[in-house]
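Example 3.2
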Amino acid sequence: MAAEAAVARRYQAMGYHVMAERWRGPHGEIDLILEDDDGALVFVEVKCAKHLDQALSSLGRRQQQRLLDSATVFLGLMPQGLRTACRIDLAACDGTGAMHIVENALAA
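Structure, written as tokens:
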């Protein structure tokens, strides 16, 4: 939870607004959901490990699908629905407090 709070603060410093923390839908939980001034959403998965490279590589295929499914459900609740601009980011943290954010982490 401390890592999620630190990640939220980082995004807030970049101008994003926190819409939800640990949002739970039928497919699972999304750690953070943020919105920029234009209404675009950012779904953030926070991963922590002893080393940043471990955290960065810990988002498996099943969890990626769960994130996509959960984000789709959340988008369905928005006024623009699935037309809402959005992306899914990975925020990796290590034991020293270092953080690395990968924007659009699921883009192939």
